[in-house]
Amino acid sequence: MGVIEMINPATGERLGELEETSPEAIERAMVHARKAFRRWGNLPLAERLDHINRLRRYIVDHADELAETVVRDTGKVHLEALMTEILLTVDFIKYYEKKAASILKPKKVSTPITLIGRRSWVEYRPMGVVAVISPWNYPFQLAMIPAISALVAGNAVLIKPSEVSPLTGLLIEKVFRKVGFPEDVVQVIHGGKEVGERLIQARPDKIFFTGSVATGKKVMAAAAEHLIPVDLELGGKDPMIVFADADLRRAANAAVWGAFTNAGQTCMAVERLYVESSVYETFVRMVKERTEALRLTEEGADVGSMTFPRQLDIVEAHLADAKEKGAKILCGGRRTGSDGLHFEPTVLTDVDHSMRIMREETFGPVLPIMPFDTEEEAIRLANDTPYGLNSSIWTKNRKKARRVAGRIEAGNVCINDVMINMANPGLPYGGVKWSGIGRYHGPEGLLSFCHRVSVISHPGRKKREINWYPYSERQTDAIRYLIRLLYGKGWNLSLKELLNLAVQFLRRK
Ligand code: NAD
């Protein structure tokens, strides 16, 4: 059991220490969570939603205060914390308050004629204890939204926030305490990698993991030992494709925001920008001008500090590799300020796919731009990555936009917009390829925390069924006739055959 040092990454100020949760305490938390689940999962949905509603109102009433804690923990800009951590979270809560009843109610399924007399439906039941393991880049929202989804569905939750943003972990704990959530329904487990591993060894009934590809693979392997279902929300290397007929001003503003918001530490940040050759020079100039106009360290800045020292090392390693292979840095490229983890927003040209900066997740304020000549080339470049999280296509030609969007290998696509699909709580969110497994948000975001139980019901007043013992030649014939009748050419059975079939059905009585 270690101690986590809490440091404001923007200033280097020490904020205190936090003890990691011990292995014994994790075991205890699991036992308590299982007990709490039995009560919570049996509450009527309306009662669970009352608690969730109080949670929303608390977050709204303390929005600035909560955002400020996240700012001190991560170095992000206050407006960004308010927008992406608080606004997004309460919007999701509201969505589930409105939609959960219809999403979770049993769904009728049609019953085929071969099963005549029965009724079929699907019920959604909570899974038990859900472990939510979350990252540091949006530490409030990325822990709260999956946790709230799991809670609405009727599960108890153990949240393991990132050790890189421990203050937000404490904040989440406080929020649930203040709202008076029933005891042990939500517990927060503090600590790093080993604590995460221990949590999985404690055998939750489901794991919702958000983080890097490397850790996601380990989580999945550990979960496989106990056959625990996992959802993985992993990294990205998202492409933005700008065609010559796009609104270039809108696209340039979007590229700069998409690359540098949250200091580029967004899983679906614009990490690769492809621009049609005929407007390449103009567009690069527009992006450079806008990037140079961004304000950094001062109050009310546009770009905050980075959060994790090791991430800054990765950014610098990618830049060094790109420069060595011939890339040009148009602006930025250096650490800035004496304290903290600030890095200048950086634009690069003369890049190609042999460079790490075009292939690996950089997760920092860096925007490499590359020209393309044809639609086919743009699609090939965009898909030339092991990742598939988000993507954006920019053109005024709606047909072309839909055509290209349909060929991008990603879980999410924006047309003439950037990153925003995550902000619609009704849209399922998740990646393809290395970017993840599973979906959350939208109806899927509740159902993925449920067992789907299929139920088939018979009135129960017949002694036997056509397919039950004892078997007979006539029964075999009847099945044969049924196959021909229902799935063959149609009404080509003789009267005798039809009669046999009818008799077999009637004999069920
Ligand atoms: P990370 O993988 O280092 O850590 C994520 C969480 O896993 C942390 O809480 C960490 O303590 C825990 N952990 C580490 N090793 C573990 C193990 N062996 N077993 C169990 N838990 C373990 O990721 P990070 O650096 O915190 O976050 C950045 C990454 O997250 C980026 O790759 C980013 O793209 C990705 N991300 C993805 C999404 C998405 O929705 N797809 C959203 C945000 C961030």
UniProtKB/TrEMBL annotation:
Pfam families: Aldedh. InterPro entries: Ald_DH/histidinol_DH (IPR016161), Ald_DH_C (IPR016163), Ald_DH_CS_CYS (IPR016160), Ald_DH_CS_GLU (IPR029510), Ald_DH_N (IPR016162), Aldehyde_DH_dom (IPR015590), Aldehyde_DH_NAD(P) (IPR012394). This is Aldehyde dehydrogenase. Part of the sulfo-TAL (or sulfo-SFT) pathway, a D-sulfoquinovose degradation pathway that produces sulfolactate (SL). Catalyzes the oxidation of 3-sulfolactaldehyde (SLA) to sulfolactate (SL). It catalyses: (2S)-3-sulfolactaldehyde + NAD(+) + H2O = (2S)-3-sulfolactate + NADH + 2 H(+). PANTHER family: ALDEHYDE DEHYDROGENASE-RELATED. Residues 4-452 form the Aldehyde dehydrogenase domain. Belongs to the aldehyde dehydrogenase family. GO terms for biological process: aldehyde metabolic process.
